[in-house]
Fold this sequence. Notes:
With 266 residues, this protein is α+β, with helices and mostly antiparallel strands. Helix content is 41%, strand content 19%. Helix 2 packs parallel to helix 4. The longest helix has 23 residues, at 82-104.
Amino acid sequence: MADLRLVGITDDGARLILERADGEREHVVVDERLRSLLLRRSTSATQTQIDLESRLTPREIQTRIRSGQSMQEVAEAAGITVERVERFAGPILHEREHIAQEAAKVSVGRDDHGAVMLLGELVGQRLEERGVPRGGMQWDAWRRDDGGWEVRLDYVAGGKERSAEWVYDPARRTMTADDDEARWLLEEESGAAVTPLRSVPADEVADDPATDEPPVEATVKSGTQEAIDTLLKGRETVPDSPPTKRKKKASVPSWDEILFGSRKPE
């Protein structure tokens, strides 16, 4: 049997080019059976090579990626290149992205009109109102040791890189704030109701049967007359003690001031 050497493949990829010892060439059709065999052998060879070189198995590599480690961190732990880690990281990174997208669709309450508010929409709206573009908001997720998922939103606000984290339960579809940033983003802001005040003319006060107080104007006249009488009698008038000034209450900065460095615009 003559030995053949593989020297290439035809331009259309349909045949392998084999060469004899005397330089004569043969062609072999690449059918489904041959293609499957070559693929299986290639995968097996790659697997064997990784098993021999890596300090971590492919399953351990995927577990670390799922738990939030970067490919660079896993590559250093395994003692292999990042390119080799990428061969196993792809499906896990897609899984993490899918979980983050599902978490952003979880209902976190209702607005004033009764419409359901989703986490991603509510958070995006609150940050946009403070000048953070949606394009600068990055969602990520990774598996926790207790089996739950940690979901994180990264963004830049006030010139600083910030993040907010929640715990996501896919089975119950519930989100729980896991830090102050996340709690602030889910807080419902409601201003206190203010009753408008108006001045009341003295004649309205005098005509109001519901009050026994004298009209404002009359009270002023009585006070003036009393002062005149006192002067005429020559009695010394002792001025009232000046009112004690109240100490101004310290202003406590809001979370907006802490986060963005300025008050929320009215």
